[in-house]
Structure to design on (758 residues):
């Protein structure tokens, strides 16, 4: 296999993402999948219709049970696509034997309800394992991603059911206004027409969702093998080796090629797939519930001896309004007096006839009721209060995001240093330009300019109330000053900043004259202390 | 031939490549399921509390149902970084299609359009839309310009097996380096024979085969990792 010949890019994906890889594969190859699916479905219908045309719902049940066979077609197309081979209907027919050779009977019988059916299907169909080998392999595969395989199966059921419900609802929604047809009522008494309709809806739902389920399982399978066998590593290594060894390396064949194309002539026509026997009388039984006459009540011994009771009983039996009986069977236990005490207490506990609750004394009841009311009130207060507190807490917790005014709007505090320069007023000499001149004359141009610059900042921050955070850069300060100062001081600050930056970052000291100009402009622009 | 992948690469104006992995129907179904379970659990408790208020409570409860159904996902998506509780559970996140975080507008649109995706009663439109679009978008996602993506679940610091650091014979590209590092990281999970097979592919680079080759590749990983 050449590095570029894989139909998907192997990566170590999380399981859920791997299931989506399957869907992406399905999207890329839906045409051949649909063709093969149509062929299989047509084949099954042709097989089932002559026997079950009177009971369409049983056709659906049979199709539903035979899904593992339909799955094999989907998996065949996808697996061929992944390994770079075409998969037309003719290929499917040509590979008929290898597709059905292994595990089909098991898949249709005891593995039919396996919760990770689509995840482990490639083990039997593509790897051709069976028996103990299959079980071992499936165990290794499902050790990781098994949970996702199960979720995939569950969501497969859910999608099929929801899609079917959706189609039925769609039909109901399409009924013209004023129509009295209630599609959902069909379920109460499903006639033949409604059964055909349900079969159609079911087939549509299966067609839409079953390939998704199979593809998801195949994605899980591919990803698990990528994890276990390092397919992505192999591809990367092959690319590297190819780069080293020039085009010759491309001819290398994989020693680990998957046993996909393995074929052996074991005929096993699917026509022998078991079709469930349809009980002839089943629909009739469904169609006529609750129409038999209710059974007459058995004439039991009337325990209460009063005449009134008898008369009431007679009315209850004869009047059609009361003519309903319900048979309730319960287990009860009458002690014989011979059983051991523990058995008796156990049986009493399990089967004793319900004894009437002991009537409580009135004042006790009153007290209890008052207690209960109090408890209810407390509960109400706690719940409502808790809810209110929760809402308030939510508002408080997300007050920033909700754009509410912040409670703790502290007065802005001038930082002690900006960009590493001390800008406290106390740190400045009384006459900043003079001190700077002295430094400059001593040859410490950097210190001199730093003093001028931080002096200017300190004056701006403390005397002109310019707000800059400690994290501000020179550019930030400049922008803040331009918005804050009049034109003259602003341009002076601009010049000062530029000079300082040239010295600080380019090590380019200003000339004596330029420096003198800065010093001269300083008191007027930044209003030094008297 | 085309190679199917789950990763969509987006280049930002700054020239940074973002790798988004759109999430398909299975993960999203379960996230929705968890969200609905949470919402209805909350509504149940609220309902119990509100019965104390009689008919007023019933009215309030219906208002609460409305708000929970329509606004719960919006609030959680915007304030929770694109993740409702269910999405958090399944490591999903809602983003705009260009990779930016979702805001109020798109979130409101994509959640109000659930009424379209929910048609004709069981999210059939949404499911079909997800199946038909390359990035698994339902109608609401398409209109709002959003995407539900998989997120990396807790990444652990790699543990490389001990080996004598060995400098590769030639300069390796970034991709090749990361493949060698990945081999070392995952060598504990590969069988010995498979490790040797993989290392044999690199025979031209290591100059040895079998166990010696594995040792050499592990050594290169150690070297690339920073061991000298």
């Amino acid at each position: 296999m050449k590095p570029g010949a894989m139909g998907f890019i192997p990566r170590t994906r999380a399981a859920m993402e791997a299931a989506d890889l399957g869907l992406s594969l399905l999207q890329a190859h839906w045409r051949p999948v649909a063709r093969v699916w149509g062929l299989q479905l047509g084949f099954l219908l042709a097989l089932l219709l002559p026997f079950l045309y009177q009971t369409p719902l049983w056709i659906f049940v049979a199709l539903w049970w035979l899904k593992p066979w339909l799955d094999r077609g989907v998996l065949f197309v996808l697996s061929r696509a992944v390994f770079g081979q075409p998969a037309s209907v003719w290929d499917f027919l040509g590979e008929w034997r290898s597709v059905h050779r292994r595990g089909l009977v098991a898949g249709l019988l005891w593995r039919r309800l396996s919760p990770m059916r689509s995840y482990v299907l490639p083990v039997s169909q593509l790897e051709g394992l069976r028996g103990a080998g299959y079980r071992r392999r499936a165990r290794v595969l499902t050790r990781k991603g098994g949970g996702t395989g199960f979720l995939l199966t569950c969501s497969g059921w859910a999608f099929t059911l929801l899609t079917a419900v959706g189609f039925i609802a769609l039909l109901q929604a399409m009924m013209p206004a004023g129509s009295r047809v209630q599609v959902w009522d069909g379920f109460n008494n499903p006639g033949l027409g409604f059964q055909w309709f349900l079969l159609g809806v079911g087939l549509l739902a299966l067609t839409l969702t079953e390939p998704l389920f199979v593809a998801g399982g195949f994605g899980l399978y591919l990803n698990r093998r990528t994890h276990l066998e390092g397919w992505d590593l192999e591809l990367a290594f092959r690319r590297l080796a190819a780069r080293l060894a020039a085009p010759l390396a491309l001819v290398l064949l994989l020693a680990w090629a998957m046993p996909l194309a393995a074929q052996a002539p074991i005929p096993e026509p699917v026509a022998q797939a078991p079709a469930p026997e349809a009980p002839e009388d089943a629909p009739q039984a469904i169609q006529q519930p609750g129409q038999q006459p209710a059974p007459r009540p058995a004439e039991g011994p009337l325990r209460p001896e009063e005449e009134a009771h008898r008369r009431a009983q007679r009315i209850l039996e004869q009047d059609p309004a009361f003519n309903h009986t319900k048979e309730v069977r319960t287990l009860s236990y009458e002690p014989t007096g011979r059983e051991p005490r523990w058995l008796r207490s156990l049986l009493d506990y399990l089967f004793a006839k319900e004894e009437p609750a002991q009537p409580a004394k009135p004042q006790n009841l009153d007290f209890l009721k008052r207690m209960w009311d109090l408890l209810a009130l407390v509960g109400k207060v706690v719940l409502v209060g808790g809810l209110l507190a929760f809402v308030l807490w939510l508002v408080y917790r997300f007050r920033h995001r909700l754009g509410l005014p912040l409670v703790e709007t502290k007065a802005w505090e001038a930082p002690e240093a900006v960009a590493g320069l001390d800008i406290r007023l106390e740190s400045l000499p009384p006459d900043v330009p003079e001190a700077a001149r002295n430094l400059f004359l001593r040859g410490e141009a950097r210190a001199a300019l730093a003093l001028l610059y931080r002096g200017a900042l300190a004056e701006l921050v403390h005397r002109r109330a310019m707000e800059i955070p400690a994290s501000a850069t020179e550019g930030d300060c400049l922008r803040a000053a331009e918005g804050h100062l009049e034109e003259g001081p602003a341009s002076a600050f601009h010049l000062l900043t530029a000079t300082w930056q040239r010295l600080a970052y380019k090590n380019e000291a200003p000339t004596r004259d330029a420096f003198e100009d800065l010093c001269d402009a300083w008191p007027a622009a930044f209003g030094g202390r008297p | 031939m085309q190679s199917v992948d789950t990763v969509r690469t987006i280049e930002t104006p700054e020239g940074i490549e973002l790798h988004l992995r759109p999430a398909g129907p299975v993960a999203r179904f379960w996230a929705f399921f968890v969200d609905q379970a949470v919402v209805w659990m909350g509504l149940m408790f609220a309902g119990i509390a509100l019965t104390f208020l009689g008919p007023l409570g019933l009215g309030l409860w219906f208002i609460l149902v409305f708000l929970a159904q329509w606004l719960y996902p919006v609030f959680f998506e915007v304030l929770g970084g694109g993740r409702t509780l269910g999405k958090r559970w399944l490591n999903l996140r809602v983003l705009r299609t260009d990779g930016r975080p979702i805001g109020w507008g798109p979130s409101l649109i994509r959640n109000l359009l659930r009424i379209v995706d929910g048609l004709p009663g069981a999210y059939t439109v949404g499911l079909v839309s997800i199946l038909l679009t390359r990035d698994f978008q339902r109608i609401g996602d398409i209109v709002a310009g959003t995407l539900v993506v998989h997120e990396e679940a807790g990444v652990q610091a790699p543990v490389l097996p001990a080996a004598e650091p060995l400098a590769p014979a030639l300069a390796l590209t970034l991709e090749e380096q990361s493949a060698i590092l990945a081999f070392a990281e995952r060598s504990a999970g590969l069988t010995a024979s498979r490790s040797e097979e993989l290392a044999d592919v690199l025979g031209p680079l290591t100059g040895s085969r079998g166990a010696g080759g594995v040792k050499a590749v592990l050594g290169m990983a150690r070297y690339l990792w920073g061991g000298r």
